[in-house]
Design brief:
Two copies of one chain form a homodimer. With about 400 residues, chain A is α+β, with helices and mostly antiparallel strands. Chain A is built from eleven helices and 15 strands.
């Protein structure tokens, strides 16, 4: 393991990145929370991104994809409070965001990553940006990562930010990231907004490859509610300020970089799941012994996506039949008669199912295990060596409350 | 239209069917609600069934599939309170249920349809059946359909039963059905327990064909929570007591029979959705103008399955972006820029989206429309003539409450 987490790390922890956020009032009712932010590198970066697979895409997503085609970027501008999706003038507004950022940061508009999150189908007002962007540009700071993390929060209750340092062959490099959840989150896409930055020197091609490897086992294994957002955007910029020998092939440095990036994204993914809308618990489903890696991933996803499993964890009820039920409809190649299931947490571990049939267990211990904040559902398929982890959260009254009247 | 609904119709409305239910105490805590029932025909029937596609299957499902291989059956025995799934001795218990029914009804055990619903992974006690089945056999009555409907209820709050009469070329025949919901219900299978009976004369092959046609647009278009049950069973028995000319080809009588069966199942499907766990509202998503019928079905399913759409309907909030979002991830071939969306109910109709973009609408009217008990989400894709309807329900605090501690 060649990486370690940096205490209080964020997206501006890597050398040469600055950020700031401001209260723009994108949603007129918001007059106190930061809702527009920028992140910028002192110098041009190689860059890569992954985006929603929803056919409905925010204009911000369409523009950013275009801007990243050449593998370079230098700044991010993002807002919460309005998704800039399903609007007649969305592309015009996204381009205006890029131009405002570029003008105030004195960079090329094509090097600006644009992202929006919030209500779908309402016209994005541009006045808040005209007012806030100059203010943000002059406040850009190496300590601004947290303010940027705040500015992209919607129903999130905590800021999501972290950073790792990674020892490459000749240098230590740093990767930082911020992200926002916390509803309309589902597997199989860049899930949510997240912006990462690194001072490593790495070619655009290798950066894209490392990003995709890391996403596959982290953000793409999170589900809050099974709804694929229209605005999912995850980008990374690498400015090379660490002075390492530039990574241009899949060498040992590439492997170390990707390992660190994966660890960072897994941590962020767990933060997203744990702060899912209304969530009180993080659910990790660890699947081992699958015929293939793909079967393991499918099985883990089915379990963490099941409304019945999620409600059962909320109620701390060891109703393991629901786990088997989800495995059974996962579409994966599973021999149910070989399946073992256990629940574990910091309070212990309880085996509840062996060879596909229920076994006697202590309800008292099960209750104790399931009352903790982070629950692992261990699924052993005893049928190969495919393994995977999925990240989800419980389904609670508050999820319903938050989403029953989201627009006001 | 050659069918009409019969007031207070149930599974014993067709000539020659009897039923009864009793309090068996399958779940020891139950001492008041009927939980074991039988339905029987005076004479042997042609029969057909569709079953869960979950890899995890109740022993009752496995046994019933075997019993229906020859296309004949004469009785149903079913219980609530225990799913007889994921138990070491499940098949033995299912066979014992069939034998008890057959002995007491004086029929062939191979002609018994067996079904169970309730908690997964707990051993099924056979004593309640030994006690209740003789009692039920002696109580069998032509008015017993409603008691049978009660006996299969779990978290259902209302009994689901209905019947239609259908004019064939030379006779009027009757089809009746009962069903239970109301959680772990999802598209793409026989969804839930439902037992239908008809006095029509129809070959086993044509009965199976009519059943599959009807299921495809009714029960298979219902979702409560996205979880595919392990016990889904839908069967139909036809005893020919109406004296019609037996249906052995896809003639006009077959078409009329299938039309009536489809109407019956659509009505039952809506009853299931409206009484989904915790539900306060029925959501119908009607999709028109799809490129293909399959795209229309996929689009309707995505909308009624979306947790965010479900929560929005609970909150009577016209956040139509969530409908577009669900269409976008449905996997169907949709040109989002052509999509129109409207909400309607007995209180009116409000158009909220045109050509894939939000339009101005009266929030007051939208609120009025969405506060009703049955909401239709109208989706016009303007891209062909594929049409479909999906049936779902809102997501509420009570769904979470019911499923947070289901076993007690």
């Amino acid at each position: 393991m060649s990486y370690k987490f940096i205490p209080n790390g964020t997206v501006t922890t890597p050398t040469g990145f600055k950020a700031a956020g401001a209260v723009g009032g994108v949603k007129p009712s918001n007059t106190t929370k930061r809702d527009i932010m920028m992140i910028a590198s002192d110098t041009p970066c190689t860059a890569a991104g992954v985006f929603t697979q929803n056919l409905v895409k925010s204009s911000a997503v369409l523009l950013t994809k275009k801007h990243l085609e050449n593998g370079t970027a230098q700044a991010v501008i993002a807002n919460s409070g309005n998704a800039n999706t399903c609007n007649a003038d969305g592309m015009e507004k996204a381009e205006k965001m890029a131009t405002l950022a570029a003008t105030n940061l004195d960079i090329d508009p094509d090097d600006v990553i644009v992202a929006s999150t919030g209500v779908i189908g309402q016209v994005l007002p541009i006045e808040p940006f005209e007012k806030a962007v100059p203010e943000i540009a002059s406040a850009m700071s190496e300590n601004g990562g947290s303010d940027a993390a705040e500015a992209i929060m919607t129903t999130d209750t905590v800021k999501k930010e972290a950073a790792v340092s990674v020892e490459l062959s000749n240098k230590v490099i740093t990767i930082g990231a911020i992200a926002k959840g916390s509803g309309m989150i589902h597997i199989n896409m860049g899930t949510m907004l997240s912006f990462a930055a690194t001072d490593a020197a790495i070619s655009a091609e290798m950066l894209k490859s490392a990003l995709e490897e890391a996403v596959d086992v982290s953000y793409n294994m999170v589900s809050v509610d099974g709804d694929t957002s229209t605005n999912d955007t995850l980008t990374i910029m690498a400015n090379g300020a660490a002075g390492n020998e530039i990574i241009t092939t899949r060498n040992a440095d590439y492997a170390a970089f990707t390992e660190g990036l994966t660890a960072l994204f897994k941590k962020m993914a767990k933060m997203l799941a744990a702060d899912g809308e209304g969530a009180t618990k993080l659910i990790v489903c660890r699947v081992n012994g699958a015929k293939t890696k793909s079967d393991a991933k499918g099985a883990a996803k089915a379990v963490i996506c099941s409304s019945l499993v999620k409600a059962m964890i909320f109620g701390a009820d060891a109703n393991f039949g629901r786990v088997l039920c989800a495995l059974g409809y996962s579409g994966c190649d599973i021999d149910i008669s070989k399946v073992d299931v256990a629940f574990s947490s910091v309070s212990g571990r309880v085996e509840v199912c062996s060879n596909g049939a229920g076994i006697e267990f202590s309800e008292e211990l099960a209750k104790k295990v399931l009352l903790e904040k982070e629950i692992t559902i261990e699924v052993e398929l005893n049928d190969g060596d495919g393994a995977a982890e999925g990240y989800g959260c419980d389904l609670t009254y508050d999820y319903v409350k938050i989403n029953g009247d989201y627009r006001t």
